[in-house]
């Protein structure tokens, strides 16, 4: 059990979570991974609901709270209610009625994904550290060439960023994994890496990013939670957590973060000209 005082801020909570995650047993790690990806739900969920989401017994959630330094779940929930309660979404009656009229219909599915996307966008303001965002923009703006890598689910984001950089005449190279080639030898002095990956993390993306850090290149990451392998020394992590509907997650918040990053980098480069 953790004998240190409980975190007093959301930022402190995530730092503590990252510290303890490496040595947790299997059930505790399940709790950590679920809560890291769904921190916004702590304020409005019961122990039983969190346990069901994490696939563990409620007693495991209680033990996890103690590992994090809290006396119990109520104390941990109080921290998140203080932080998140003012920003909880106000669900419209029309959206609820649409869900009730036709579960599984195209219109109902559209409503569900719009709802999930809206919540993801609202959460983005909490998950992205503005100081890291500023530093990321400055890092990419001064790069000779930006190497963009994101495979599988992250590939649409990587291609969109490369397209946006191209249209703004920002030198960028897309690493697409074609032929199992990672093109790491194309990364030279003065370049920066923009890596995008979400759970279950692309090992190719992680390997390229961490290898680049070891070689002294600056790395910016768009990833999900503090459990991500890209929350690592030498990496500037921009955290985004997409709310899912069923087993599917859209990229609403991720693409919003991507266009923010691209436009901000373009503006920063123009200021230097």
Automatic annotation (TrEMBL):
<protein>
    <submittedName>
        <fullName>RpiR family transcriptional regulator</fullName>
    </submittedName>
</protein>
<dbReference type="InterPro" id="IPR046348">
    <property type="entry name" value="SIS_dom_sf"/>
</dbReference>
<feature type="domain" description="HTH rpiR-type">
    <location>
        <begin position="11"/>
        <end position="87"/>
    </location>
</feature>
<keyword id="KW-0238">DNA-binding</keyword>
<dbReference type="GO" id="GO:0003700">
    <property type="term" value="F:DNA-binding transcription factor activity"/>
</dbReference>
<dbReference type="Pfam" id="PF01418">
    <property type="entry name" value="HTH_6"/>
</dbReference>
<keyword id="KW-0804">Transcription</keyword>
<dbReference type="GO" id="GO:1901135">
    <property type="term" value="P:carbohydrate derivative metabolic process"/>
</dbReference>
<dbReference type="Pfam" id="PF01380">
    <property type="entry name" value="SIS"/>
</dbReference>
<dbReference type="InterPro" id="IPR047640">
    <property type="entry name" value="RpiR-like"/>
</dbReference>
<feature type="domain" description="SIS">
    <location>
        <begin position="136"/>
        <end position="272"/>
    </location>
</feature>
<keyword id="KW-0805">Transcription regulation</keyword>
<dbReference type="InterPro" id="IPR001347">
    <property type="entry name" value="SIS_dom"/>
</dbReference>
<dbReference type="GO" id="GO:0097367">
    <property type="term" value="F:carbohydrate derivative binding"/>
</dbReference>
<dbReference type="InterPro" id="IPR035472">
    <property type="entry name" value="RpiR-like_SIS"/>
</dbReference>
<dbReference type="InterPro" id="IPR000281">
    <property type="entry name" value="HTH_RpiR"/>
</dbReference>
<dbReference type="InterPro" id="IPR009057">
    <property type="entry name" value="Homeodomain-like_sf"/>
</dbReference>
<dbReference type="InterPro" id="IPR036388">
    <property type="entry name" value="WH-like_DNA-bd_sf"/>
</dbReference>
<dbReference type="GO" id="GO:0003677">
    <property type="term" value="F:DNA binding"/>
</dbReference>
């Amino acid at each position: 059990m953790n004998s240190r005082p409980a975190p007093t801020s959301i930022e402190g909570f995530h730092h503590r979570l990252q510290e303890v995650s490496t040595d947790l047993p299997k059930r505790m790690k399940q709790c950590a991974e679920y809560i890291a990806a769904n921190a916004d739900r702590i304020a409005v969920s019961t122990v039983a609901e969190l346990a069901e989401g994490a696939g563990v017994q409620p007693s495991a959630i209680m033990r996890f709270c103690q590992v994090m330094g809290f006396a119990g779940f109520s104390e941990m929930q109080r921290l998140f209610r203080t932080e998140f309660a003012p920003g909880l979404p106000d669900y419209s009656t029309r959206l609820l009625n649409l869900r009730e009229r036709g579960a599984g219909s195209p219109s109902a599915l559209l409503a569900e994904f719009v709802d999930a996307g809206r919540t993801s966008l609202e959460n983005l303001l909490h998950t992205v550290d503005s100081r890291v965002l500023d530093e990321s923009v400055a890092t990419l703006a001064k790069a000779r060439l930006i190497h963009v890598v994101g495979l599988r689910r992250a590939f649409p984001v990587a291609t969109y960023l490369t397209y946006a950089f191209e249209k703004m005449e920002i030198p960028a190279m897309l690493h697409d994994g074609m032929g199992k080639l990672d093109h790491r030898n194309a990364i030279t002095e003065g370049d920066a890496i923009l890596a995008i990956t979400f759970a279950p993390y692309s090992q190719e993306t992680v390997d390229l990013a961490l290898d680049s850090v070891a070689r002294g290149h600056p790395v910016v990451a768009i990833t999900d939670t503090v459990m991500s392998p890209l929350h690592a020394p030498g990496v500037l992590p921009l955290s985004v957590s997409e709310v899912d509907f069923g087993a599917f997650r859209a990229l609403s918040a991720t693409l919003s973060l991507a266009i923010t990053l691209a436009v901000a980098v373009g503006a920063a480069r123009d200021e230097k000209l």
